[in-house]
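request received
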Amino acid sequence: MTAMGAPVASIDAMSSDTAKRVDRILQKRGTQSEQLIHVLQDVNDELGWLPLESLKLVADGLGVPLSRVASVSTFYKAFSTRPRGKRIVRVCMGTACYVRGAREVTEEATRELGIQNGETTADGEMTLETVNCLGACALGPVMVSGGVVVGHLEAGAVGKALEELKRGNQEGARALGGESVEQLPELKSPEDLQSWRNQTRGRASGPVRQALVCAGTGCRAAGAAKVSEALARWIEASGSEARVGREVKETGCHGFCEKGPLVVVRPEETLYVGVKESDASEIVERTLARGEPISRLLCADASSRKRVLRWPELPFYAEQRRVVLRNAGRIDPASLTDYVASGGYDALSRVLRTMSPEGVIEEIARSGLRGRGGAGYPTGLKWKRCAEAVGGNRVIVCNGDEGDPGAYMDRSLIEADPHSVLEGMIIGAYAIGATTGHIYIRHEYPLALEQMGRAVSEARRAGLLGRAILGSRMDFDVSMTRGGGAFVCGEETALLASIEGKPGRPRPRPPYPTERGLFDLPTVINNVETLASVTRILEMGAAAYAAIGTERSKGTKIFSLVGKARNTGLVEVPMGTSIRDLVEKVGGGVPRGRKLKAVQIGGPSGGCLPESELDRPVDYEALGDAGAIMGSGGIIVMDDRTCMVDVARYFTEFLEKESCGKCTPCRDGLRELRENLETVTLGRATAGGLDEIEEMARAIGLGSLCGLGRTAVNPVLSSLRHFRAEYLSHVEDGKCPAGVCRELARFRVNERCNGCGLCREACPVNAISGETRSPHSIAQESCVRCGACLDVCHRGGIDILSGRELEEAAMEVAS
Amino acid sequence: MIELRLDGKLVLAAEGERLLDVARRVGLRIPTLCDHPAVEPEGACRLCVVEVRDRAEGPGRVVPSCLERVQPGLDVRTGSEDVKLVRRTVMRLLLQRAPDSAALRSLAEEIGGKSSGAVWVSEENAGGAGCVLCGVCTRLCAAGGHHAISIQGRGAESRVSGPGGEPPDACTGCGVCARACPTGHIQLTEIAGVRRIWGRRFEMIRCGGCGEATLPRELAELESRRLGVTLVELTHCPTCKRRSSAEKFGELPARRTREGLSESGPMKGVAR
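response:
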């Protein structure tokens, strides 16, 4: 092994520069082999990519075989083994974005930039990449570069968005709350915590009126940072008298992402939606100063169209029960003081003072809490197994690798209330006897990483992590790992491999991690929402928590309600709420007069439920019976413009790309399955082909090694079960009823057209012609069948036909 | 001893025994690709699956027999419909990667997996019989302490290669990977005292006794340092080694040869 960064006389200047930069990173990170992924991330950030030479330097520095470094660097999507441009433009291809037209956006971006996906422009300025889910689902389709998020994209607006990103508008990338400058006491006992809380509460009663600006990812993309700055500026500018007791606070996600930026004025709880920078002066002068509402900024109820003053009265919120999200949108996530003032760390303090570890496990078991990551394993039982496992040290891991496309509960929760997750984790550590913890968050969530990082360091400064926590005998500290961009790392054994610095390939269970987990120590792995629920359970008591929900599914569940719903966003409802209520009451139904067709629940492992199944309650068992799963909580609403075959193909392709490649059925079977589904969307399949697809899917589900492959076929099997007629329509009639599969769909203007010209403007290839106020027509030879015309037409003036139907219609006209 | 049911028959097994080993011991044939006695089982190829039930009437689980251990009362079926479906499917998929591998074809005939006619051979695989990504080679390479090759990339685009697809510096030319490769994909040639593998060439050391090429110099030097054995001793071919140790021990009792009792003394002319 050569010494770190040893200068070699023959290497050129550039190499020695690389060596120096890698060397600096190694010095910062240390040379333990489990630092491998962290070091590679830093090197990738520093150099923009990972040349082979840098891999050699890292291998030498950490004493890890080069072959393993190469294996890790090519496994994770976050690493690039090719040079990239100055700016990386990422188009989100998550499900929510996909059903709202992300494919068309990507195509337009490749046309605009003149490069293919994954390529870099000739001037080295921009690299175009697609990404699986940015967790900004309510804003879909979304494009992001350097922390700037552009949402609600339409193919026509891509050029402008790219210009904006190229200008390097870094506005949205501003760090929330800035650097931590909070004065924190060192808490040595429960009494210290209590007296600090009393102190801060005294202070918190200070302001008379507060403007809470939602600075979650969704609202930031819509310009929340500018709004909050402007508000602060206007308060500053207003007379000294008016300034007293007026305050602006940036909070985490409030949930109603569709309508951002959101501003809530307290104590009146007035909600303003779609706030612009220019509204700031009026908000300060009228609402903050005098408590007067501004009518045009209020949100209108989707059904009654009446403007609603206070947010809890909006149907979007009224149907919810915010238990875990209690603090979200209310407190400053960057402030431990704010969290403590709202009652934070009281549960921990009480646990340490009055409860035995067994007692805590017993309490969690009584609450009926089941894992919120998807599988629904009873949390109390998991903890008990780990506590009883043979071995000295124990580990608790927080799984924040929220990979399901269309789901962003965990991201929002961490961004809005990181301490509630951390508190649950410390309580869990106490229950199982762990002295170390790891928090794993995916790299697509920079804001969540930042908020959690700050929360950990503040908790450490205040003595809530470290030795003798709150004067008890408990020692516990956590470290953080940034994911590398691999969906499979959400699987617990792959997650552990990833923390250990290896490629995230799952290993067979048993042994379960509760017996042999991280570095072979007994390990509990809990999802973000599970841990936040633990905190709430100990605050409110197991009995009160268990009173919410159904017989076998207790408490509340957070869902990201996205896709073709009017009100998209993050919602928390009691278990047992019907899916229909979620979609129609909370979500406000399907917009633009379209028809609700299906709901996809549970991400790529979940299933597609038809409209007729929507009266089912959200409950682990009830969803399982219908061929879906609770999963992590993504609910994607689909209307009659969504093709179920295409959705099945989409998920299969998603998982094909995310398969780790270890076992044959998942690695090669999903590829073949996707190819077979493609023959259906291309109209080349036979009726027997559907049986083949079904058999193939069954084989993959039976034969795969881990949960990814075993459940990967659920979208295919469930859509075949509930939407077979739509498959058959593709196969037998050569028709895609949703007008999505381009090889099959033909569009024709019908007699309902009034010549408004909207479709003519929307068509990206100018295939529609016609005088205003007289019927338009589509030139079939230039039509690219993107369906943009169909989406803008209010009158149902465009028919979806098959090729044959179009020919027949043409012949009729001719005769 | 543990009693379990295997295709309807009661069999006895030692605690911790793998289902694969039990089945083979009683004469059942179970196909495998990624199982190798020198390394831990991985359950990657999924050809060895069997269906197990904890109780006779309970729901069945399809599991790889290379990983699943015996349990008292376990009911194992090696030829159920689900097992056949998985094996057939896996075989068809593997044949797409290695359509010309004779070993794979004969295995396919045995379990009734048919080639779909489709071929999925990535660029990296062109030239060999086809890699099925079983990982035997990379695991052996790591177990031998060389860490020259590894699986790079992920999913269907995974491939076995040296770091960055370049000839691996860490390769010693031991050739263990090529000998263990179930499809014969890894190419090892040896011409005129030069071994070529993974894009690298290795000078072979000849046996001091008979002149036959034995070990790549790089490997021999490494092992000689590691084991504290001289290069000459290490690079003797097995036959000459046997002869020389016989010589070393000198006076040996008379041994029976084909012609009758040999003379005592250094064994000369032992058949090679």
